[in-house]
Amino acid sequence: MTAVPMSDTGFTGRPERAETPVPETPVPGNAVPERVAPESPAAAPAGPAEAPSAGRPGGPSAGCPHATAWDRARTVARDVPPLPVVTRDLGEALGHALAASLTALTALPPFDTSAMDGWVVAGPGPWMLRGGGVLAGARPEPLRFGTAVPVATGARLPSGATAVLRREYGEADARGGMLHDRSTGPGPLAPGRDVRPRGQECRAGELLLPAGTTVTPAVLGLAAAAGYDALAVHRRPIVELLVLGDELLESGVPGDGRVRDALGPLLPPWLDAGGADVTGRRLVTDALAPLYEAVRDSTADVVVTTGSTAAGPVDFLHDALRAADARLLVDSVAVRPGHPMLLAALPPGPDGRPRHVVGLPGNPLAAVAGALTLAVPLLRRLGGHVDPEPLRAACAAALPGHPRDTRLVPVRRLGREVAPLPFDGPAMLRGLALADGLAVVPPGGLPAGATAEVLDVPGR
Questions:
Q1: Which of 27, 96, 250, 273 would bridge 458 by S-S if both were Cys, CB 3.0 to 4.6 A apart?
Q2: How many other C-beta atoms are found inside a 10 Å radius of the C-beta of residue 444?
Q3: What is the distance between the alpha carbons of residues 31 and 228, in angstroms, rounded to a whole number?
């Protein structure tokens, strides 16, 4: 087995301290408590506690003096430069963030087009029908005044055209060769009716989307319509997931002291929705050397671990980070569930690129809280994404709070309001499985009618 160096070089922070237990919202059943340990008298102080900001959720927990306020922890996670710019074909750009503003390479539409099936006409009616027609993709002949030809939706209009008469409004006289307008509107067919003029959506060179915009299917369609074959985007961060715990099963029914690994299936799609490419997931035994080696040897931009963030008898993450010369940026957050979470900067890789570790608690809902607090903000900023405006909603019922810490509470939508769900203990997933989001509840809670920030749940 590889010897594990134990140098303190570059390592700051402390293992999780114990705090006075405060019950979560009463729910059926009991949540598994997060593992914490009493403060070690020999440990060096980690610095003064963060003071809560007025009007902002979260302050340091009285039982964890070094805990970082929830909103401050998210700010620290975002304090990284984006990854390098790469060029991706449209088919490979989905989910990336634009590295440069998207400007139109042409006017949209690039020429006057028909908005409806029917006839393109020149001047007021009735009109003399001409043979043939105008189809999408064809280059039409000029249209003489007083004449009309059939036209398809999206087809380029010929020069001389003044309007389009919808098929349901026109009546063609086959014997006389004339087209009559049978619409019920007052007056003759107005010029420009059912015509999409050139540049109606944008002009050539016009800004369409700013840098930092997430490339969605709609963005791909707009880019293609505007003339792009490829996009300059930021590389998506590569993530390796290390699931820690000798008690975990990867299949079968739990029992005899073993439990199923719920985070292995849950976290990769969650992190992917946050902007990552999760390229690896593996179980790591509860021992220092294997964990140290897995962290040290990972080539990922971000290593995400589950469990081992507290100070229990088999919680080795702090020791592994110390051995890897990591620098702790956040060590415990004043949030429930999930306060024993951490963010650390590893020494740069051989190519000089920065690397990070996000340590999540082992309890499932606590791990999700950690992912939303540290992992997702970090991944989005590494990927160059601009954060959207926070979603806010009124509380349909009171959202109980922790006396000192921020709480993240699974909620469901009730019209324009949100209501708390049961089964919100740190080890529970039933509430999360039904949730439309997680409400950010400041210390002391929120009364019914108050406004809460709501964090997204992927896939809802």
A1: 273
A2: 13
A3: 52
